[in-house]
Automatic annotation (TrEMBL):
Annotated transmembrane regions: 12-28, 62-81
Compositionally skewed regions (Basic and acidic residues) per UniProt: 484-528, 538-567
Coiled-coil features, chain-numbered ranges: none
Residues in VWFA domain copies: 94-272
Region (Disordered) location: 450-594
Biased amino acid composition, Low complexity: 473-483
Residue stretches of each TPR repeat: 403-436
Protein name per Swiss-Prot or TrEMBL: VWA domain-containing protein
Length: 594
């Protein structure tokens, strides 16, 4: 029992203690009083008529009634100190991937290399992530965050190609720094449980013993890269990495230490494979929040309080049984409802309620069957949601009065494509519980999706208008061409209708006119050549020259700015990690440089 969580679900019922205490006081005074006998008898005769001795023995029922009233009021107030699960439509399973970027990951005992193979495996794991948040960090002599916890796995996948061993500012393989950084990411997100995947080829021996203390409730799994035989570490220029004695370093997989680390981390140890078996095993563990009972309790279920008040009524039953009288028992039997029709029951129905059978079907992933058996609307909606019946789940929760109910209804409506209705449901949840962070986050996410849809619709309308204008202009051009052809045809027809002599006369007249025009043009050209030519002016005025100069300066500034931006993210990450490492003022690593 956790006394820190002890409270009453309905504390206003405790106010009933005041009238109950007042009623008991009045009852005691009435017992102690002499009633109305003092009004009809002399005071001297009262001791001979009334008996005062049995009064002391009659106080027991009063104390029993007071104790029963106290227990009943406390039971109605709902004392509780323990939580119970309730359904919710979300999976908060988080995964932090820690990738080792020490020099030993350049070994080529796994083709094409350990680091290249690790990037491929991480990409395959990201494709299997259906929901939940994922983060990526890298470590060498120190640990650095590439992407924090996010639902956008595409962002993480786009960073994988830039992860090479030469971006680390300090050599080594500091596993403790990686684990502490991963735990810090999970705690900053407020997650009680989560998974950490260590993608590496070796670990210090003392890390396994301290890992359990560092991790807490988080689980650590290991994806082992490499082979026990190992391979030399290829340098970028030429040759292989050598130790201080000049011997070539052969990086071998430390299976024993990695297996022990996974065991202390309550995870699994998975050697890398040539096929997808390793990714499938890890994916089943990380995505088991939808199927596993353990994760079902932590990720699919929200917390509700377990009321202990009804157990107090068991202490009241013996007192209530003693208060029965013959007529009272008969009246109680008459108030009982009439018996209902009996139905045949199966074996499971004799021992389990419909909700219990439905929950069992739910845990066995028989969501449609569970939805048909659940009496609790929240559980029935949860089963319909898992079965893909999002519209039915939203319909089941339409009369909900709780913040979690509106939040779940909003999730179902969002999955059904009714984004506007989902925003309204999230808004109702926030009105009941303004601190509901999940409802606030999903509301912003759906509103962003609505804006994207509206933008797409506007773009489609603009494209349609442009297409309509283009079609209309083409039609006008075709119409003009047709009109021109018809005019030319009319002229030809008129020309053909003229008499032949008239055509000759017209042709002679046109030739004379053309000759006169040519003579006039030649005379004008001769005069122009004879006159002195004016000085040649500049092709642009002052305003046009200023605009051209400003445009050229803007283009040069843009070119210089673009040259400062790196062409690939590897250099950017390298400078970022180097800056962060310098800000931390860490001591130089004392272990091997690989």
């Amino acid at each position: 029992m956790n006394f820190a969580d002890f409270h009453f679900l309905r504390p206003w019922w405790l106010l009933a203690l005041l009238p109950a205490a007042l009623f008991l006081i009045l009852l005691v005074r009435h017992r102690q009083g002499r009633g109305n006998w003092s009004e009809v008898c002399d005071a001297e005769l009262l001791p001979f008529i009334l008996q005062d001795k049995p009064l002391q023995a009659s106080r027991g029922p009063l104390f029993g009634a007071g104790f029963a009233a106290l227990l009943t009021i406390i039971a109605l107030a709902g004392p509780t100190w323990q939580r119970l699960p309730g359904p919710a439509f979300r999976n908060d399973a988080a995964l932090v991937i820690a990738l080792d970027l020490s020099k030993s990951m350049d070994a080529a005992d796994i083709k094409p290399s350990r680091i290249a193979k690790a990037r491929y495996k991480i990409a395959d794991l990201l494709k299997q992530r259906k929901d939940g948040q994922t983060a990526l960090l890298v470590y060498g002599g120190d640990a650095f965050t590439v992407t924090p916890l996010t639902n956008d796995t595409a962002t993480i996948d786009s960073q994988l190609s830039a992860l090479t061993t030469d971006i680390m500012p300090s050599p080594g393989s500091n596993t403790s720094a990686a684990l502490n950084a991963a735990v810090a990411l999970l705690r900053q997100a407020g997650l009680v449980k989560g998974h950490i995947l260590l993608v590496t080829d070796g670990v210090d021996s003392d890390v396994a013993e301290q890992a359990e203390h560092w991790l807490g409730d988080y689980r650590l799994s290991v994806l082992a890269m490499g082979t026990p035989e190992g391979a030399p570490i290829q340098l970028q220029g030429a040759g292989f990495l050598k130790d201080s004695n000049g011997a070539i370093v052969v990086a071998k997989l430390d299976e024993a230490a990695l297996s022990t680390l996974a065991q202390h981390g309550r995870g699994i140890y998975q050697p890398v494979t040539a096929n997808d078996a390793d990714v499938e095993n890890l994916g089943r563990l990380f995505n088991s929040a939808e199927t596993g009972k353990e994760n079902l309790d932590s990720n699919l279920l929200l917390q509700q309080w377990d009321e202990k008040g009804p157990w107090l009524l068991l202490l009241v039953l013996p007192w209530a049984a003693l208060q029965f009288r013959k007529g009272l028992l008969l009246a109680l039997l008459c108030l009982l409802p009439l018996p209902k029709n009996s139905y045949a029951l199966d074996w499971q129905s004799l021992w389990q309620t419909p909700d219990q059978r439905a929950k069992q079907a739910f845990e066995q992933q028989q969501y449609q069957q569970a939805a048909e058996q659940f009496d609790n609307p929240d559980w029935r909606a949860a089963a319909q949601y898992k079965a893909g019946k999002f519209q039915e789940a939203a319909e089941t929760l339409k009369n909900t009065q709780s913040a979690e109910g509106h939040y779940n209804r909003g999730n179902a409506l969002a999955q059904a494509g009714q984004l506007q209705e989902a925003v309204q449901a999230y808004q109702q949840a926030l009105q009941l519980d303004p601190k509901h962070q999940d409802a606030k986050y999903n509301k912003e996410l759906v509103e962003k999706k609505l804006k994207e849809q509206e933008q797409q619709q506007e773009n489609q309308q603009q494209d349609q208008q442009k297409q309509d204008k283009q079609d209309s202009s083409e039609q006008q051009q075709e119409q003009q061409q047709q009109d021109g052809k018809s005019d030319q045809a009319d002229k030809d027809a008129q020309q053909e209708q003229k008499p032949q002599d008239q055509q000759k006369a017209d042709a002679k007249q046109d030739a004379e006119q053309n000759k006169a025009k040519e003579d006039q043009q030649s005379e004008a050209e001769a005069k122009q050549q004879a006159e002195p030519q004016p000085p040649k002016q500049e092709p642009t005025d002052h305003e046009q020259a200023a605009q051209a100069t400003e445009k050229n300066e803007t283009e040069r500034a843009n070119e210089q700015l673009l040259k400062r931006i790196p062409d690939e993210p590897t250099g950017l990450l390298k400078r970022k990690f180097k800056y962060q490492y310098g800000q931390r003022n860490r001591a130089n690593p004392t272990g091997p440089a690989w």
